[in-house]
Specification:
Layout (H helix, E strand, L loop, with lengths): L1 H10 L7 H12 L10 E5 L7 H8 L5 E8 L6 E9 L2 H11 L2 E3 L2 E7 L24 E3 L3 E3 L2
Antiparallel strand pairs: 1-3, 1-5, 2-3, 4-5, 6-7
């Protein structure tokens, strides 16, 4: 029922987020995050696709000395993927930022701030051998075209 009223408010053009909507988002997300920070790096999700590194930096700068504020973009299209990472000098500053910015609005969207998980090492695969020429006469397969005659 609460979702319907929020949706109705959005459709009616209410541009200012009400306190009840903000508190509903906060209660949903704050109750689920009980983990403590062990590193000064934060994961920011729910970002507007138009949020830039500069806007992110400005939003998180009041909580401490930022080392990095990076919006993650798609390599092919160059568009934001909707999440970012923010790194502070100390864990205490990161904790203040997490408490201050979790379930808040940034560029019109509600963002969520969580501890960043350390990156897992990806296993190295052997190099692909696509360019091996067949010594047998006849038809060969070609991944881009389908098949070719020799």
């Amino acid at each position: 029922m609460a979702f319907a009223s929020i949706f109705r408010r959005i459709l009616n053009g209410s541009s200012t987020p009400s306190l009840t909507v903000r508190s509903q988002f906060a209660s949903i997300r704050l109750n689920s995050t009980v983990t403590t920070l062990t590193a000064p790096k934060l994961f920011i999700s729910g970002l507007n696709r138009n949020t830039s590194d500069e806007n992110l930096y400005k939003a998180f700068a009041p909580f401490g000395r930022l080392l990095e504020a990076k919006v993650i973009v798609d390599r092919g299209s160059g568009r934001s993927k909707g999440f970012a990472f923010v790194t502070y000098e100390s864990v205490e500053e990161a904790e203040k930022a997490r408490e201050g910015m979790n379930a808040k609005y940034l560029d019109g969207w509600v963002i969520f701030v969580d501890p960043a998980n350390p990156r897992e090492a990806q296993p190295r695969l052997p190099p692909r051998q696509d360019n091996i020429q067949s010594t047998e006469p006849g038809f060969t397969s070609n991944k881009t075209v389908g098949w070719t005659g020799r």
